[in-house]
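Attaching the record inline, Q. Sequence:
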Amino acid sequence: MGSRRKIVSLAVGLALHLAMTVLLAGRPTPVLAQSYEAAQKLNDEGRTAYDRGEFSGALELFKQAFSLYPSERYLFNSAKACVRLADSEGAIYFYERYLTFNPMAKDRQVVESEVTQLKEMMRAGGLTEVRAVSNPPQAALRVQPERQTQVVEAPGSLFLAQGSYTLVFTLPGFKPKEVGVEVAAGGQPLVAVEGVLERLEPAGYLEVTCAVAGARVQVAGNYVGQTPLDTQELAPGGYVVSVSKLGYKSWNVLAEVASGKHTVVDAVLVSEGDESRPDDNGKPRAGGFPWRPVLFSVAGAAAAAGVVGGYFWIDGWLGMDQANSDRKKISENEYIRRYGDARDSYILGQWLTVCGGVAAVGAAAGALLLPRPEPGTPQVGFFPLPGGGTVSLGLAF
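Structure, as predicted:
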């Protein structure tokens, strides 16, 4: 019986290992040292501050969350905080970045409508939209004379009053670029400014792979192709890589491209129905826990236990029959020992087979019958704008 119990222990251990492996597979995998848990904690703290009316503190927390783990949810919440701070320029900047990160957002039309209203309000105040872009993209952006702004990276729109300005573009591996801008009075039409930077060091290379073919790939907010993406030549530095496809949750990561090195990013797209989404009050829906893979792993472990049980059941039955056949040939003590061991195996096998079979069927049925959570929407409530119009205030996630 000792050897049989060791086999049972081994089977149960393997089943538990399988269950834990599938369970842990449902958690976010750290990519390039980004901390998903830390970002979520900061986002939760920002939501709490937002609910208390501490919008400046909430904005800083949302921005910190994004710096740890690039995700459109933190950009959306940053935009909402800017709206409450009456910082229309900042709200436009974060809204546009949100749509860049999530080009197939279900609330795209609503967000674009809000951006249009905010821009009209800025122009009505005599300000001119100066659209700053850089080549390569994602250069840091400063304005001289210095002014307080959330627009710190190109592409982005600055809303400037009449005067002379200098836009300074900086990017690791490139010479800084200064571009002068003259803004006339009265809020002139859109002014586009491009900063073309000169490279200082050899380029690096980026490749994007994904199990889902045909997904849209953006690097630093610019569309570069579909998965699998061939090698892209880039200046050394950090780039936000966004991968999205209809029916899947958009995936973002900060990829570090080193001079002369080849960086491969493996994007993991998850079906929208398999992740927690916000409900109509901006709160996460239940169902983010990976119940289906856990239940299927339990079913597999239970089935394995049932198979092992079947072996012991048959082995015990044959052992008892053999002991009865040999009873006249062996001593009474030997018969009692052999028959007792076989009976123990027979009872253990019955227990494992019945319990394992019931558990396997129940877990598999539960996994198949679980309803999929429906994706939610981040809009909650509306806030009146000066001069008419409204914008939604609900935090996204």
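The mean pLDDT is 78. Residues 332-369 form the longest helix (38 residues).

More tomorrow.
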